[in-house]
Fold this sequence. Notes:
Layout: E1 4-7, H1 18-30, E2 36-40, H2 59-70, E3 74-78, H3 89-92, E4 96-98, E5 102-106, E6 109-114, H4 124-133, H5 136-142, H6 147-160, H7 171-183, E7 188-191, E8 197-204, E9 207-214, E10 222-226, E11 230-236, E12 239-243, E13 247-249
Helix pairs in contact: 1-2
Manganese (II) ion is lined by residues 9, 42, 82, 193.
Amino acid sequence: MKPTLFLSDLHFHGDHxxxxxxxxxxxxxxxxxxxxxxxxxxxxDFWLGYRTTLYRxxxxxxxxLAALVDAGTAVHLFTGNxxxxxxxxxxxxxxTVHDGPHTARIGGHTVWLxxxxxxxxxxxxxxxxxxxxxxxxxxxxxxxxxxxxLWAVARAYARRGEHTYDEPLPAALLDAxxxxxAREGADVVVMGHYHRAVVHTRQVDGRTVRFFGLGDWxxxxxxxxxxxxxxxxxxxxxGPPVALPEGDHAPPP
Length: 253
Ligand SMILES: [Mn+2]
């Protein structure tokens, strides 16, 4: 069976970073091989959809997405708090955009997918910032600024908030959110946003359900692969990826 890949929090802003190069390598290997690729939000370090303009730094990734579609792979792109508005460009290259949670049937599994920023249980502050970032009025106002200036501001903001990995995944996601989605019929929940690489299995009403936190491509370099079973993988320079065991993983030191 052809594999399906799930990645999130690529925070792509060019192919000059080790994480950016590693993820392009994974996408190049998927070309002609993968059934589908799900990109579950914060795919770009910053993106705003314009009618006439694209962010040049994103071109290496855009090229890969178009190549995947051309090779017959279904590419799904979710909005995130860093790339809250994709515009209509991605439809032109055959990529399906999801502006919220999406349920997919994959190999007999019901998979609930979402970026995760709008349900952040760490407090109202987190959810509010993400909700403002996703507001159409903000996007309309932001489009009045020159794209180059907006890109520079967004990059400076992203650099300031460098990701730390000292907090584990909020327990409420596993103790409350996962069982709630399971009772609605999902048996797998896939989420980004928290930058933790999580494999978590539990029983809900006698059914086995699983939660996968996708990690990121800043320091984690992790992604989920389904080829009959789900495996969370970590990229290794010059070698095959390593499967991550049950648990909540920070990046290697
Ligand atoms: Mn992120």
